Amino acid sequence: MPATALDPAVLAKYEPVIGLEVHVQLLTETKAFCGCANHFGSEPNTNICPVCLGLPGALPVLNEKAVEFAALAALALGCQIRERSIFARKNYFYPDLPKGYQISQYDKPIAEHGVLDVPTADGGLKRIGITRLHMEEDAGKSLHDGFPDSATRTYLDLNRCGTPLVEIVSEPDIRTPEEAFEYLTRLKEILLYTRVSDCNMEEGSLRCDANVSVRLKCAEKFGTKVEVKNVNSFRFVRAALEYEIERQIEVIEAGGRVTQESRLWNANEGRTYSMRSKEQAHDYRYFPEPDLPPLIVTEDFLQQRRVELPELPEARRARMTAEYELNPKDAATLTASREFADRFEAAARTARNPRRVANLLLSEIGGRLKALGLEQEQSPVSMAGIVLAADLLDEDKISSKQLKQLLDVCFEKGEDFAVVYEREKPRQITDSSALEAMIDEVIAANPKQVEQYRAGKKTVAGFFVGQVMRASKGQANPALLNELVAKKLDS
Ligand code: ADP
Ligand code: ZN
Ligand code: MG
After folding, report:
1. Cα–Cα distance measured from residue 169 to residue 192, given in angstroms and rounded to the nearest whole number
2. Cβ of 21 less than 6 Å from ligand 1
3. Other C-beta atoms lying within 10 Å of the C-beta of residue 33
4. 248 in ligand 1 pocket by Cβ < 6 Å?
5. In angstroms, what CA-CA distances link 291 with 37, 52, 71, 342?
6. CA 208, CA 203: separation in Å to the nearest integer?
7. Which of the listed residues 399, 424, 449 is the one where a domain comes to its end?
């Protein structure tokens, strides 16, 4: 491992430069240029036809839904969308690419010049440029393992051939592995919010190649970059970049030069391996795809996409932070997915006090879930249940102590709040004379506090309310109790 050998002072002389290329499968029903099902997990070689197999004479027809998704993602990333973009053939030979070329876009991609803001360690935002977003098709899959004769044979599953993709290429604006991690996290969030992809990395719906170079901090020019391929989680991207940065610095410090090459990340060993150098790099011999006309994106089409564009994660976090008085961590929890944020807000808006719904969800429910190691989706208490609880609190029909007891039962028995509340409706003392007797007792027992109150320290009333509430085992009606305490103290 070169990593640990380096002195921090040596590391500090260098600045990493990182740019990411992300491939995203689009959630269309059918493939990019034929009517085959775009479906992960089908029996191998069942979703194929002459078009996606590249049989002679078969002609591609562009799937409009794929263009809609590409345009939606491009708008969400602040890109400029080209009115007239061109499909191109990217030629290379590989067994999982029966056509011998991939339909992609080259010098006239559908979208360019986007931005993505990522949070920084000091609480600010850093803007990362997006060079381009282009449409292309996926290749098939080579299966190297899992067959009795896998030692001598590779099998092919061509179901993935022709799956619509967008490739999103960042500017070399990223400076640390952590920033790369944040960029990917934010990008995925936006793609999920716009529902253009399921971004499932295990299934290969989102794949990332990381480009990285290092330069002396005072240098103007970028160093020679290495492309790390085959990294299938964001954490691995971060680890691969950390490894690669130290490896490159070590090469330079030893008086050598970084070779421009593609390297593979090996997660088991925690290191990268050379895959092919620049001399072996492909010449893709791009040329315009003769079987497809230019892609024309009209203003009407774009307008439709703008209508579909949801409130994006960053904006939603900002709005909800203000609306529900949240701290940054709670805002992140509530907006972690669009579906969850939608469910929360739809419920909260029906409550007397929406902030109280947020508060209960995050504290009482969140705390219990966390203690049990459960996810929000596994909560026995529904959003409607939380709204009911919040309203009961708001109307002083239950005390917060009673609420806690009811929620404990919900979590013990796996029952929703309404069920438990209906069955165990906590008793409330609403009888003034009973409460007054209790208040008299507390007043008699605490002459010092009575004096303080009468000397003008009105907040001491809270002390008496608390004492009586405790004496009543949480059963005193809070509104009535407050009123009676004030009356007694003032009399
Ligand atoms: P290539 O021609 O090798 O595909 P590109 O210029 O298209 O290279 O860039 C591919 C990716 O590499 C982009 O994300 C870009 O930001 C990044 N990149 C380009 N130059 C560098 C560099 N010197 N160091 C790190 N990343 C770089
Ligand atoms: Zn097909
Ligand atoms: Mg390139």
Report:
1. 18
2. yes
3. 24
4. no
5. 22, 13, 22, 43
6. 13
7. 424
Nearest bound ligand to the CA of residue 164: 2
Q: Is the beta carbon of 474 within 6 A of some atom in ligand 1? A: no
What is the CA(151)–ligand 3 centre distance, in A?
34
Whether residue 79 sits in one domain with residue 103:
yes
pTM above 0.90, yes or no: no
Answer yes or no: is the C-beta of 17 below 6 A from any ligand 1 atom.
Answer: yes
**Is 47 in the same domain as 135?**
yes
Q: Domain check: are 117 and 101 in the same one? A: yes
The domain tally of the chain equals: 3
Q: Which helix (H) or strand (E) holds 107?
A: none
Each residue's pLDDT tens digit in the chain (491 positions)? 444 567 888 888 999 999 999 999 999 999 999 999 999 999 999 999 999 999 999 999 999 999 999 999 999 999 999 999 999 999 999 999 999 999 999 999 999 999 999 988 888 899 999 999 999 999 999 999 889 998 999 999 999 999 999 999 999 999 999 999 999 999 999 999 999 999 999 999 999 999 999 999 989 999 999 999 978 899 999 999 999 999 999 999 999 999 999 999 988 898 999 887 766 667 899 999 999 999 999 999 999 999 999 999 999 999 999 999 998 889 999 999 999 999 999 999 999 999 999 999 999 999 999 999 998 889 999 999 999 999 999 888 888 888 999 999 999 999 999 999 988 877 777 788 888 888 988 998 998 998 899 888 888 888 998 888 888 877 888 888 888 898 888 87
**130 in ligand 1 pocket by Cβ < 6 Å?**
no
Question: Which residue stretches of 400-477 are H helix?
Answer: 400-413, 417-424, 432-445, 447-454, 461-471
* CA-proximal residue: ligand 1, atom 7 (nearest): 169
> Two tokens at 141?
């899959």
* Cβ proximity of 73 and 194 under 8 Å: yes
Residue from 92, 211, 220, 249 whose mutation best tests the ligand 1 pocket (most atoms within 8 A of CB): 211
Residue minimizing CA distance to atom 11 of ligand 1: 19
Quick check: CB of 19 below 6 Å from ligand 1? Answer: yes
Full domain range(s) for residue 316: 312-424
* CATH number for position 443: 1.10.10.410
